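Sample intake sheet
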Amino acid sequence: MLDNGFPLATESNILKELIKPPTILRSVVNSITGSSNVGDQLPTGQLSNIPWRRAGVKYTNNEAYFDVTEEIDAIIDKSGSTVFAEIQGVIDACIKLTGMPDLTLSFMNPRLLDDVSFHPCVRFKRWETERVLSFIPPDGNFRLMSYHVSSQNLVAIPVYVKHNISFSNKGSTGRFDITIGPKQTMGKVVESVLVIVHMPKGVLNMTLTATQGNYTFDPVTKVLMWDIGKIILPKLQTLKGLINLQSGAPKPEENPTLNVQFQIQQLVVSGLKVNRLDMYGERYKPFKGVKYVTKAGTFQVRT
């Protein structure tokens, strides 16, 4: 919300209190009375030194849940070595607590985090001195912090890709063979695996066989998509077969790049772990939980 062009309120809790969410009943009443969803008075939190939390919050079930999500951006060369790797991580919170709780969240190994940014509720001086998150949380869902891990030796690549893509010099065919499997996943299942390959323009069609999942090739856009799903060991996930090229067309100058997407539940590759969550200012004991997820960001394998 702006006041004379300047930001006045940015917190979602204040905006929801000031501008009521639309409902069918409210729309009918507004059309009859000519009123609007905008309140006549400023929310109580607007004039507070804790503007992100509304007053008088009450819940029957008190809960505090945190989602730690990391995305891996990586480039793997032909030999399987890591050219570039970094992690973009976020911690999203869902807080439904009665009253005005004061929370402290500590980690097992917070020193590995770089380029950290916080929600305004976090006391930055406490983080600088003790590396713990101390805050009075907003009510509901919000992003507590985001972070970056740029040191390559801290980024464990969770999947491997073996590939053999070749084009004949004189003929109109080529060979396509890729295998994908888990690596450094701590026994967790790699799921939602999808391989996307942008083939050269000279490719007419592809005749392939997949040991798991389904593949599609679009002859117009030259995009090959292999939807694997879950990687189930000890079975190898392989896609191989023939590439049909335009007759008389020159041999493609470069091999295509493999773009890999995946997701791993209950694992973060940086090794970040939540140690404990303590609550002060209230006497009840809330339900607490932490969920970890690793996803592929821009994950490319050069062939």
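Comment: The helical segments are 12-18, 24-33, 124-130. The longest helix spans residues 24-33.
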